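User: Predict the complex with 6-O-phosphono-alpha-D-glucopyranose.
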Amino acid sequence: MCGIVAYIGNQEAYPILINGLKRLEYRGYDSAGIALMNEELKVYKTKGKVSDLESFVKDKDLSGCMGIAHTRWATHGEPNNINAHPHLSEDKHIALIHNGIIENYSSLKKELITNGYTFQSDTDTEVIVQLVNYFHIRDGFDLITAVQMALSQLIGAYAIVIISKDDPDTLIAARKGAPLVIGVKDGAFIMASDVTPIVEYTNDVVYLGDEEIAIMKRGKKLRIVDFKNVKKTPLLKRLEMNLECIEKGEYPHFMLKEIFEQSDTLKNSMIGRISSDLSSVALSGIIDNKERFINARRIVIVACGTSWHAGLVGEYIFEHLLNIPVEVEYASEFRYRNPPLYKDDVVIAISQSGETADTLAAVELAKNAGAFVYGICNVVGSSIARMTSSGTYTHAGPEIGVASTKAFTSQVTTLVLMGLAIAKEKGMIDEGYLKNIVTELYHLPQKINEVLALNDDIKMFSNRFTYAKNFLYLGRGYNYPLALEGALKLKEISYIHAEGYPAAEMKHGPIALIEEKMPIVIIATNKGYYDKIVSNIQEVVARKAFVISIVTKGDTTVKKLSNYCFEIPETDEMLVPVLASIPLQLLAYHIAVQKGCNVDQPRNLAKSVTVE
Ligand code: G6P
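Assistant: Here is the predicted structure with 6-O-phosphono-alpha-D-glucopyranose placed in the model:
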C-alpha cells in the first residue's frame, strides 16, 4: 500500500527518493509523485508506475537536497495525476505525503471550504495539508505547532511527511497506526514506510512510535515529540539486513527467488530454537511467558490473507499437541464483532509485515480486553511486533513478492515450534515423539530442496493451464488450509478464479462446477484418512476433471487416478503443509508467468495492507 520516502541531507535528494520509490514498488500502488526543495518547492506527480514518473520529470528541475516522494494506492478518489501525492496547501508553500485513511475528512473538508479553502483533489489527504496551512498561515502558529493542531483534528490512521517552503531546512513526519522508519546518517535523514529504501544508505534506524512527531533538520540531532509536545528520546536500532536481501539477483522475479530461498529461510526460523541433539525446542517468548501458556483456557489466532491460512494450520497443530480450544479469526471480522475475551486467553497475531491494519486493530482490541497477546511477525521492529506483549520472529528475511511464499512456510514452522515448546512446558508431550518431530524439522530444509527440484517439470506442465477459467483445490486435515492457500496463490497472481475446499465439502456445492478437463488440485498426502481422500478423488475422476495431485513419494493409488502427480518426500503430517505448499507456489507462479502477468506486483493488490 502507499509508500513514503523522504530525505534531508547534503546530497541531491532526487536519486535517493526515486530509488527509494522503486524499492517500495512491491507494496502495490497506482500513481507516484515527488516534491523537491531548494529555494523553490517543485512537485511532480503522475498516474502509473515510478518509471512513468521518471519519464515525466526527465526535462524538469530536479535540484534540491531535501524532498518527499510517494507511491499511492488509491482509496479516496481514482488513480490519476491530481489525486497522486504530494498534495500542496492552497498557497503552494506546504507539501505533504500520506499513507492511511482520514475517516473524518469529509466534515473537515466542509469546514475548510466554509473558511474559503478550495480543493484540487478527491483525496482525504488534501484536508491534512490545508488544515496545517490553516493553523500555520491563517492562525499564525509555527509549523510544528500547526502540524500538532492539525493532527489533533484527525480521526483515522496515518503516516505523513511535510515540507514547507518557509522552513526549508526542516522535514516533519508523524504517525498514528501506519508505519514510518527513519534512517540516520551523518546529519542526514532518510525516512520511509519500511526499511527497504533505507538499507543501502544506513543500518542505523529509529522506528517512529505511534502518535509521535519527528523533526529532522539537516546536520542536527533527530528530535521526537509526542502529539502533546512531550519530548521523547529517539531509540537507535541497528538493522541486520543487507542490500542482497532486497534484490532479485539472478532470478526473473522476487517470487521465484523467495520460493527458492525456503530451504534457508526455514533454517533461519529454527536456528537456536532446536537443540543440537534434536531432542527439544526452546523459544524465549514461550519460556518467558510459560505461565500464560500453561494456564491458557483458549488460543485465539487473528490474521489476514496467507497469514490467516498459516493460522488455520496452527489450529490443527495446537489442537493436536495441546488439546486446547483454538479459534482462528479474520482480524477484520474479529475487530468489529465484540468477541468475548478472557484474561486467560492467549491471542496470537500472525503477520508477515507486522503492519496489517486489521490485525493491528485486533491486537489492540485483545489487549484492551486484558488478553495476553503474542505476535508471530517477520518484519523486525514492525508495529505488531512492538504492540504485542511478546512473540516469535519468523526470520524469513524481507519478502518482496506480493504473493506470500517463504513467509507462509516460516509461519507454519514457527507454529510447530510453538506447539512443541508449549506442550513441553505443559508436560504433555512424550520425549520420543518430541525427538521424532524435531528430527523431522531438522531434515525439512533438505526435503525442501528435493521438492524444489520439481520446478522444471512444473514449469513445462503449467503451459496447458493458461486456458483455464476455474481451478478447485481440495485437501483434508492439515491439507485443507493448504488447499485454501494454493487457491489464493493462483488467483492472486494469475487472475484465474480458484477456490479451496475441504475435500469432503466438495459434495455440498463445488461439485456442481466440475466439468470435463476442469483442473482440480488435490493434496493427498494424508496418512490418517487416506481412503477418504481417495474416494474424493474418485468422485472427481468420475466427472472427467483433470486431476493434479500432490502425494507422498511411493504412492501408487492416487498416482493412478491422477492426470498429473507431484511427489513430495515423506514427513510428519504436521509438517506436510511446509513441503506441499511449494509445488502449489510453483504451479501458480509458472501459470502466471505463462499468462504474462506481473507476478511480483499483481493488479490491485498490496503487499502491506495498512488501511482497513
Ligand atoms: C496482503 C498480502 C498477503 C498477506 C496479507 C496479510 O493481502 O498481499 O500476501 O498474506 O496482506 O499480510 P500480513 O503482512 O499481515 O501477513
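The mean pLDDT is 94.
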